[in-house]
Specification:
By secondary structure, the protein is α/β, with parallel strands linked by helices. The protein contains ten helices and twelve strands. It has two domains: 4-105 and 276-291, Nucleotidyltransferase, domain 5, CATH 3.30.420.40; 117-272, ATPase, nucleotide binding domain (Nucleotidyltransferase, domain 5). It has a five-stranded mixed beta sheet with strand order 3-2-1-4-7, with helices on both faces. α3 packs across α10 and α6 (197-205) packs across α7. The chain is globular, with a radius of gyration of 19 Å.
Length: 294
């Protein structure tokens, strides 16, 4: 059996593991470099995966941002510390001397979630609410990547024309309102003591109406996104993931907001099942079909 070295590059962490027959082992992670210098990312990747390279047959990468011909372009550069136009595929091929397959992290997570749902469903979306907001789409049983790798960047749909400016340059994107980054910004304006989205979530869980209102604003934007995807693509199921999406109580807020829409706008809503390692598992599963064809 072939062994995949899977890597997941996010806004706050980079994870790596060996995956064989969907079994994950030797998982490790580091913080995502805050520097805009490509050399910082290259060094972080080298340090992280060097102990695993000798045990792998190929590399599969799930990364935040747009992946076009193996180059990482950050639609919202703030999510990767300003890193942009980074030759991700070439860099990893040079580090590992192995075949390398690269995909967007939400697309990867969507693919592994799709493997776990009812077999008669062919159209679904995965939405991650984390550092940013992204989506993956399976239509007609096929993962939608897009010619330029843009498919699924639904976090940059406009839901409030009077909303905040997003890091992508647009006004009122879902990401600018609903993401963990946006939640943290809103919390810091109200409380000097908070430093993370988790701090605000803890306040909500402790009974703070003000903290709950911040999460309700996020859930409202995500519910609008879900309704837009449903009426545009006729999807059957949406699975919700990411650190915010999986946070206690958040799914119920989104469901409550979604239920204010007419029935035709409301797909089935479920929590993602693959958990924090959805990107790793999805990238490996997706890449394996191409590695087999080599």
């Amino acid at each position: 059996m072939s062994v995949c070295l899977a890597i997941d590059i996010g806004g706050t962490k980079i994870a790596a593991a060996l995956i064989e027959s969907n079994h994950l082992s030797q998982r490790t992670q580091v913080s995502t470099p805050s520097s805009q210098a490509p050399s910082a990312m290259s060094q972080a990747l080298d340090d992280l995966i060097s102990p695993l390279i000798g045990q792998a047959d190929y590399v599969a990468v799930a990364s935040t941002g747009i992946i076009n011909d193996g180059v990482l372009t950050a639609l919202n550069p703030e999510n990767l510390g300003g890193l942009n136009n980074y030759p991700l595929k070439t860099t990893l091929e040079n580090i590992t001397s192995l075949p390398c397959y690269v995909i967007n992290d939400a697309q990867a997570a969507c693919w592994i979630e799709y493997q776990q749902i009812n077999s008669d469903i062919t159209d679904m979306a995965f939405i991650t609410v984390s550092t940013g907001v992204g989506a993956g789409l399976v239509l007609g049983g096929e993962l939608l990547v897009g010619r330029r790798g843009i498919a699924g960047h639904a976090g940059h749909m406009q839901v409030d024309p009077d909303g905040p400016i997003c890091g992508c340059g647009r006004v009122g994107c879902v990401e600018a309102i609903a993401s963990g980054t946006a939640i943290t910004k809103a919390g810091k304006k109200r409380w000097a003591s908070v430093s993370t989205g988790k701090d605000i979530h803890d306040k909500w869980m402790s009974g703070s109406d003000n903290a709950k209102a911040i999460f309700e604003q996020s859930a409202h934007a995500v519910a609008q996104l879900i309704s837009n995807l449903r009426i545009t693509l006729d999807i059957d199921v949406v699975t919700l993931g990411g650190s915010v999406g999986l946070a206690s109580g958040y799914l119920e807020l989104v469901e409550s907001e979604l239920n204010t829409n007419p029935r035709v706008f409301r797909p089935e809503l479920k929590l993602a099942q693959a958990g924090a390692d959805a990107g790793l598992l999805g990238a490996a599963h997706w890449a394996h079909q191409y590695y087999k064809k080599k």
